[in-house]
Amino acid sequence: MIDSAVTEAGARRARRPPLLLWVAAVAVVALVTLPLLYLAVRAAGGGSDAWSVLGRDRLLELVGQTALLVGAVTGAAVAVGVPLAWLVARTDLPGRRFWSVAGALPLVIPSYVAALVLLAAFGPRGLLQQVLEGAFGIERVPEIYGFPGAVLALTLSTYPYVYLLTVAAFRDLDPALEEASRGLGRSQLETMRRVALPVLRPSIGAGALLVALYTLSDFGAVSLMQYSSLTRAVYLQYRSLFDRTPAAVLALVLVLLTAVVLVLEAWSRGRARYYRATPGAARTAARVDLGRWRWPAVTFCAAVVGFGLVVPLVVIGYWLERAVSLGEGFEAAWGAAFNSVLASALAASAAVLAALPVALLASRHPSRWTRTLERASFSANALPGIVIALSLVFFAANYASPVYQTLALLVFAYVVRFFPQALAGASSAFARLSPRLEEAARGLGRSPRRAFFSVTAPLVAPGLLAGAALVFLSTMKELPATLLLRPIGFETLATDVWTATTVGSYSQAALPALLLIAFSAPFVYLLTTRRLGMDAHG
Amino acid sequence: MPARRIVRATLAALLLVALAACGGDDGGEASAQGGGKLTVYSGREEEIVEPLFEMFEEETGIDVEVRYGDSAELAATIAEEGDSSPADVFFAQDPGSLGAIEEAGLLAELSDDVLERVDERFRDPEGRWIGTSGRARVITYNTDVLSEGELPDSILDFADPEWEGRIGFPPTNASFQAFVTAMRLSEGDDATREWLEAIKANDPHLYESNTPTVEAVAAGEIDVGFVNHYYLYIVRAEQPDAPVANHYLESGDPGALVSVAGVGVLDGAEHAAEAEQFVDFLLSEEGQSFYAEEAAEAEYPLIDGVEPREGLPPLEDLQGPDIELDELGPELERTLELLNEVGFTT
């Protein structure tokens, strides 16, 4: 009786988050949601007239088209990412080591490059059409512009989020669960559905959420493919510019859509919590024998990697070859490459540090308040890059001029944009770590701090590093905020690609695009390996 | 446990990097102080105007810092910065972006000496921005399929069903939208809507920007493209034998609009004297010859005594509809709505 009372009091005490953690987490969330404050200022400043955009029929259509795009891209990314993850993690797929890395590599290709490349390959007058015309006299290929092109380009550049998080979850999944299910007579498929999928669901959901946020905020692919999404409408409003209020109002609509996506993701996650009691005992699961499905499976992997990686490389190679044959000179983009890597490394470190208190609070002290705080940190992240950039221009130029147009502010902008990716890494690491381990350490006489460093930290480090790698890769590709917030003369590989493509000089874009891919690829490789991958038990 | 040491080392390294990030950039702002400097926000592409900045630096010894970006986005940036803008000069692709900044009260008056060098139709009536180079709207056509004589004199005639499936243009491009605005101002909204609907019925091919439109003409995918005159030269640079040429429409036709890229000096610019020197340079014989001779885009020089690139008809012969260029900006929103309603853009 006395014992249980003591235990309960102890548990309550352990559950109450320390004030410092609260302060740190609230401060971080307040900073990353700064753009919302800016939107409120702009939307309020415009008078009732500006809100008339809300009344237009067009708005409903835009919201519908955006929702359709997000739904289709997220669905397609899950449909590609999850089977691919299962194939490389759980089956005897021929060449699975190769596919496990190659399947993640399309992550290094920015969506605007993916769209450019798809147009160059499959658009009117594209390489495919030229080949077909040469061989069969075919003069027109099916239209790729609009919805199909946008879905294809965005799916190819985002499915690796789902894939990477799901592979990690498969590796974490205790094979004993599946073996028990099989032993009880359930079929392979039934086991997958009833045992594996529920445990994988949080990871798949986290990946799908990143895909959805990316799609909501993407401008490059939808503008090249001429698909009318809300983000494209926001850009067009800024480009017509005589009133910034309608753009702000449209952006707020985008925030509302983001909230819907977040609620859906939380709902799909349900109330279940999955922990493994024995983090050290990971065994390799017996691999499923694909049998006669081996070659169809290989074909599937080849198609995904072909569209996502090989086609872009071939097209960029073609541009490069054309530039060489025209005798164009190349300026070495090494300075830009250095700047890209520097800014991305700083952004990755800063984002992970910022994500720590939020993830720790939400996973260690789950309550409605901490979860709301965690969700709130996502709310600004589906905003188009230009909105985030202009909001920071507004605040920094007017209220913090010493940091305006410095690397520090640029890094801060990256953290604001890509915070969810760092948080996804940190949260998935903490979520899979049983609090009992820490409790055990405490029970064995360790102080909370020592328990954290000797037990928790080693277990979550790989997840944090995975989050850092995701932020690194996104920052390498980032364009709109970089253009407006970089210090003058600070060229990155992404701005070099932009500089060349604005004048339609694809041949000059080829070299920085290739360097962008080359410098990003090692980080994708790290993400797919067991040592640093999204694996809480490295 | 070695894992613990690895984690500690990693966390320590992350912390160090973060600290370095915070402390590493004190230098930037201080260097902007003092004379002999100029900060330009350029909506004109680096590939095209960088030599101009180099010429100016060489001539004056003034150190020019350039922030490149999209004209409209830079205009929005200057508007957000307000009086704290680090920019001295805004060098823009179109009168619209300059007009927006002027409307926000952020541009200073230019000197009469500079203003007088350029025809009134190519500058702000208030004298707060001035055109630096001209771009004419043209019909680019495929010379394998069409001869110049087969092309109409007015863009209105492309509404005819004989052009079904043969037209291409970039509906989201600012120059195309400026042309549609010009048509609205000269022909009226109803006539413009009718024309757009007829063009839509002709099943046009839509492109992201001008260069792909001209490339499509060169490839024979379409017969005619509605673009600016100089894209022809850009495409020819990559494909010297491309079967493309420009057709200029008759004077007064909305399809013959001549617009400008231009420049303005920020009110309260920190380096106002250098900014004036720069505007003076852009409109000097040397700064203007650049467009006639070496620029990748063969735009029209705007001052007297500098001839355009060989092969271009004289600027005096090109006359768009009778409208002021600074009317185009404030009317853009209505044009976007019209393009929406007809179904060309968002």
In short:
Chain A is mainly α and 538 residues long. Chain A is 75% helix and 0% strand.
Please provide a written account of the structure:
The complex is a heterodimer of chains A (538) and B (346). Chain A is mainly α. Helices cover 75% and strands 0% of the residues of chain A. Chain A is built from 24 helices and no strands. In chain A, helix 7 crosses helix 9 (147-172), helix 15 packs antiparallel against helix 24 (506-528) and helix 16 (334-364) crosses helix 19 (407-431). Chain A is globular, with a radius of gyration of 24 Å. In chain A, 54% of the residues are buried. Helices cover 42% and strands 15% of the residues of chain B. Chain B contains 13 helices and nine strands. In chain B, strands 1, 2, 3, 4, 5, 6, 7, 8 and 9 form a nine-stranded mixed β-sheet that branches. The longest helix of chain B is centred in the first third of the chain and has 22 residues, at 2-23. Mean pLDDT of chain B is 87; it is low at 9-34. Classes of the chains: A mainly alpha (538), B alpha/beta (346). Chains A and B meet through helix 13, helix 16, helix 18, helix 19 and helix 21 of A and helix 1, helix 3, strand 2, helix 4 and helix 5 of B.
